[in-house]
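Quiz preparation item.
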């Protein structure tokens, strides 16, 4: 595919060689006995943009939560920036998440504070000083075209604006990895394309992106690799011109 770096190309020295995310035979079973992921293996290169798709309940959200160490695998390894996140102690998790931006499916916005303060929160947690924090917040809001709404309450924003606010909060730490769980799920086609244009702009400056979606209009002719989950198992997708991992078959 034009202008796209595949994992196999990276591993043979034609470009970026570093793996940013790596799953190796990952299983995730919840206490109820439900198997969310089964023997999932794949690599994502530094600076690559990848779509994750599958039916409702396929395991997409669980996979993203494993990367952020919100959930832990029962077996197998999840490496993020060469760190085994499943083995990290709780005290190390804030350092992991400083390099991760997460756009949640249910937004997780705080309606007791304005737009500016929603984006500010991650920087406050990390201990940034006020001047640097304000600079970063306004840069993030400007990136998603919400700078003029910084004093508004999130409840006054449209659905598309709320999603852009989530993206601003996710990028304010200037992460090297951005995860998005169904970021266009409740948006009309125009807003969805607007959101995707924002993600593509981050990809162009070297951010690694993994975006969960079932939106066919986005997946069609996207020009990027697609990982497909079905009942917790990673499928071989010949249309993506690259297998998700060795040995993964439908």
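Solution:
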């Amino acid at each position: 595919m034009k202008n796209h770096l595949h994992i196999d190309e990276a591993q043979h020295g034609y470009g970026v060689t570093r793996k940013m995310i790596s799953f190796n035979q990952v299983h995730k079973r919840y206490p109820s006995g439900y198997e969310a992921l089964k023997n999932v293996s794949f690599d994502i290169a530094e600076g690559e943009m990848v779509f994750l798709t599958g039916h409702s309940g396929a395991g997409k959200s669980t996979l993203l939560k494993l990367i952020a160490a919100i959930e832990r695998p029962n077996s197998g390894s999840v490496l993020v920036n060469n760190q085994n996140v499943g083995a990290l102690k709780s005290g190390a998790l804030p350092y992991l998440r400083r390099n991760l931006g997460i756009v949640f499916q249910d937004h997780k916005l705080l309606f007791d504070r304005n737009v500016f303060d929603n984006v500010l929160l991650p920087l406050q947690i990390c201990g940034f000083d006020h001047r640097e924090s304000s600079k970063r917040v306004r840069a993030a809001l400007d990136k998603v075209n919400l700078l003029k709404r910084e004093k508004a309450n999130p409840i006054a924003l449209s659905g598309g604006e709320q999603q852009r606010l989530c993206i601003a909060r996710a990028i304010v730490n200037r992460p090297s990895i951005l995860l998005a769980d169904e970021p266009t799920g409740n948006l009309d086609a125009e807003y969805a394309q607007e959101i995707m244009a924002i993600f593509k702009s981050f990809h162009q400056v070297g951010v690694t992106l993994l975006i969960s979606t079932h939106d066919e209009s986005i997946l069609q002719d996207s020009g990027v690799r697609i990982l497909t989950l079905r009942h917790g198992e990673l499928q071989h997708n010949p249309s993506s011109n690259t297998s998700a991992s060795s040995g993964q078959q439908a």
